[in-house]
Amino acid sequence: MKKRTIVIALGGNALLKKGERLTVDRQMKAMTSAMNSLVPLFKSRYNIVITHGSGPQVGNLILQNEMAKKEISPSPLYVLDAEIEGGIGYMLAQSLLNVLKKKNLNRPVVTVVTQALVDRNDPMFKRPTKPIGPFYSKNEAEVLRRSGFTVVDDAGRGYRRVVASPKPKEIIESKSIKSLCENGTIVIAAGGGGIPVYKIKNELHGIAAVIDKDLASSCLANGIGAETLLILTGVESVCLDYGTSREKKIKRMNVKDAKRYLKEGHFPEGSMGPKIEAAVEFLSNGGKRVLITSPGKMSEAFNGRAGTEITK
Fold this sequence. Notes:
Layout: E1 5-10, H1 24-37, H2 39-42, E2 47-52, H3 55-67, H4 77-102, E3 109-111, E4 115-117, E5 130-136, H5 138-146, E6 151-153, E7 159-163, E8 170-171, H6 174-182, E9 186-188, E10 195-200, E11 203-206, H7 213-223, E12 228-232, E13 238-240, E14 248-250, E15 252-254, H8 255-263, H9 273-284, E16 289-293, H10 298-302, E17 308-311
Parallel strand pairs: 1-2, 1-12, 2-9, 3-9, 4-10, 12-16, 15-17
Antiparallel strand pairs: 4-8, 5-7, 6-7, 10-11, 13-14, 16-17
């Protein structure tokens, strides 16, 4: 019987706990915890692809790039995207291999540095919306704005820098990723949304942007024929009126419901919005099921006892 394929999109909490300083040791600890939570899936007969975000990490690398530009020629954003994808991919792969060894699970693991094709005329290049880097106070945000950066209020949690975030149209390495996972390899790919590239006369070129990892995960999932997209985030379920006295958890919804709730403004652009958009894209292009939940509730979500399930 042909194995089913699942794409697991890890949220930022899987790479670094909220409020913690960004260090390698703390990231490795968080990643090991996340990989342990996925052990039930590693024991299953699923073909598995893991994707992940990189907002804080790429934001910090951009800051380093800016601070050192008088001494070292700065790298373009798409090269920084590649550096972060490789670095986090290495740490995730090592964490995963160590967890698999301790559980006596013999599954190979590989990280694929991934390119995501975008339209260089995408209107998002003129309207930066993707939050990256650390949170700032209102006063710190004003200083950054005066320095020429675009800074916005991120869902009431503080102020963050934002950059262009075009929609991914295709994951360049999809065929290779599909071949690897169908041969039993757990693949880590599309890290941080992948490296944004565009085509001119069939040649690829990098472009300055950061792609949303959930939208890239959806694009990759469709490209490899995955049945399920599992989005792991910091909350147990998708909610209406989140953070208010009217907050209500959603256990199940379909694409029509999801589009309506998006239109009604229930899901902020810098928070749950891209996850719901990714779910709609995935299901509208051949996917069967989307689950959104926290890492600790994953097993319960698969059995319908937690999280939010979205279907056609």
